[in-house]
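Minutes, project check-in
Item: structure for the 143-residue chain
Input as provided by the requester:
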Amino acid sequence: MIYMKKGFFLITVPLLIAIMLTSTQCNDKEESVMCTSEFVTILLKLEFSDGQPVLLDSSKVFWVSKNRFLEQNLFDANGLRTNGYYGVVNDLMQPELKGKQEIMRFTGYVNDEIICERNVLVGADRCHVMYLGTEPLIQVIDL
């Protein structure tokens, strides 16, 4: 009977230690995080005071801390522009924004004149970009 208890102890304790070490290592690894498959785009809605969407001729997004403009083809929001929605950042930038708080300056143009300029605070977690500001992502344009 004593032999069985020792055998049980000799097998069980090392097995439990191995399981505990393995589970601790998995929890510490960033690769173990499960992300959703959705593709996130931070959109700024532009509308006139009567609620009608603003249709821009063009727009630019400037990454303030990097002192550079972002590529516009990253932000074509699949027809959302006709409803007044314009992309600021999307998940293609997640690796660059991960764990940061960055200001992106959105500028909208009609007839080569600036009609909207707005700073948007963004960042990203392990999976997606996110809006970090406190104000709604709606800009009312008075012309």
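Outcome recorded: Residues 1-5, 7-29 have pLDDT under 50 and may be disordered.
No further action items on this chain.
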